[in-house]
Structure formats: structure tokens, C-alpha cells
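Progress against Task 2.4 (sequence-to-structure conversion) is shown through the following example record, which the project officer requested during the mid-term review.
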Amino acid sequence: MSPFKKERLRTLTTSVFLGAVVLCVSFVSQGESQTTPPPTPCAAYKSCDKCAPNAKCLWCFTTNNCTEYPVSWLLPPASVCQLSQARWGVCWLNFEGLIIAMAVLGGTILISITACCCCCCCCKKRSSRPDRDEERFVRKREEIKQRADERNVERKARHDQIRKKYGLMSDSDHPYSKFENE
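C-alpha cells generated for the chain above:
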């Protein structure tokens, strides 16, 4: 892995860590600074706008009343209110839509985390061995160099033959060398 990528990954990791710390500190500081008033019973709320923001309450459009959220169940049973008519958190989104939205958001987060982990693992694995393109480039460079060396040897042999033919070589192994010295 290149130093630039390592530095970028280190910076990203540090930023995420610091963000998580700031978020945790802000939640803790909010919880300590607020005083909770005595809880209002859910039946006292007469409109969805007042009932739905309360986390302990559930507004049902079928009966137009606010009831305690059945905490013993993950989802409110049909005997309390139909999911399509139940509102919790906000009035404009029914419970079915809320469940679908939370499932999509959770799935997206899980897929993103998995993809990031896979990318990190692949980057580590890729950096430990040479790249295929790099190997191919080195192999071609070696082949080109070898062919160039072969051509240089052939060219030198031809030049030597021409020099021998016209008596331009200084060594004494060609037949006319004895006449040149006289």
C-alpha cells in the first residue's frame, strides 16, 4: 500500500473515531443536563402530534387514541392497533413504513461496513504481491532487452565480417594480414 493511501486510511480512521467520541460525549452531556418531568400518561394525549413524539406512547388512527407502547412485544400486536394505522415517533409515517425504512437503513449500513472491510482486506492482499500489469510490463521489458542484445551481437558479427573482407580488422587471423605489415 502506498504511503499516501496509508495516510488517507489513517486520517479516515482517526476522523471516524473522533466523531464517535464527540457523539458519545454529546449524548452523555445531554442526559446529565436535562431533568425529566414526571411522566404524563399516554391516555392524556388527544392528538397524534402530542402522542407520537413520546417514545413510550403509540397513536392509533383506527381508535383515535394514544396508548402505552407494548414493550413486551417488538411490534405492537393487532389487538392494540393495526401496523398500517399505528404511529410512533412521527405522525406522517405509519409503523409499516418505519419498519421498512429502518430495515433498509440497517441493511445499507451493514453492506457498507462489509464492503469497507472487504476493500481493506483486498488492498492489503494486493499490496503484498506485485500487480499483474506490473509483472507483464517487467516481462515485456526483459524480452525487448534480450532481443536488442541479440540484434547487437548479430550486427557486431556482420560488421566484423565486413571489416575482415576489406582488411580493416587489426587482428592477424585473416589471410592478408602478412602483407599489411611489409
